[in-house]
Amino acid sequence: MENYNQTSTDFFLLGLLPPSKVGLFFLSLIVLMFLMALLGNLSMVLLIVLDVHLHTPMYILLSQLSLIDLNYVSTTVPKMAFNYLLGNKSISFIGCGVQSFFFLTLAGTEGLLLTCMAYDRYVAICFPLHYPTRMSKRACMLMIAGSWMTGASNSCAHTAYILHIPYCRSRAINHFFCDVPAMVSLACMDTWVYESTVFASTTLFLLFPFIAIACSYGRVLLAVFRMRSETGRKKAYWTCSTHLTVVTLYYAPFVYTYLRPRSLRSPKEDMILAVFYTILTPVLNPVIYSLRNKEVMGALRRVIQRIHSVKM
Prior knowledge:
Elements: E1 11-13, H1 21-50, H2 57-86, E2 90-91, H3 93-126, H4 131-134, H5 137-162, E3 172-173, H6 180-184, H7 192-225, H8 230-258, H9 267-290, H10 294-311
Helix pairs in contact: 1-2, 1-9, 2-3, 2-9, 3-5, 3-7, 3-8, 5-7, 7-8, 8-9
């Protein structure tokens, strides 16, 4: 086993994949998924910005989700791929802090933003007459700003803590990115108080929003069931099912990972679960929200026609 006990301040990311042909194969899949996530989310952001028909609260929130996922997947995958290909597992102390800050900011913001999107659908289906006032563009912007500010504030607190605690000689992080629980396990001090704050943050940013989303969609499905229009029911069911798919893939592994006590945690299991919310969800989000969505596909055709007419 390699020895990562050293006197420098660098950390070492042990990584997810073994140094073998199998590991290289899975790395190729991850890089392919990374490129798909970049292309899909960037396309969604540009499409929503360029087409005025999509300048509604629902799609403005969706553009923010795509922007978050675009940065989300870029925070972890490139460093993991370079470390694997170059055989250099080190990451600087400051680099680890920066990666952790952006990861926590984006994770917290996405958790709150998904709740805002659920509220948007709840109001649109259950209170359609009040939708223009409850989900005005101003209210939408306040939701977005509040999600970003709250996520960044929470991230600042956690990052400041992990950058100021004393670490033991071994700085080998058993993960493929600077995950806070994996870093805290290397501390040369009792961290049970801090671990309680991690539990509280996870409950606030993930568990409570998940419960709120589940409750709102319970009301939504009840309202959809009472609809007279079969076309309206199908459209509402599709919207709800796609959003719930995203929510489940994002929240479930995150909550399961972060709410378990340290004694029940498994580094390998944590890394595998992390693939769902750091890589798989950013890939699926643009696919789920664009396929069978007539408004998105219509906007795509209009943008393509506009580009074609300019070239002509």
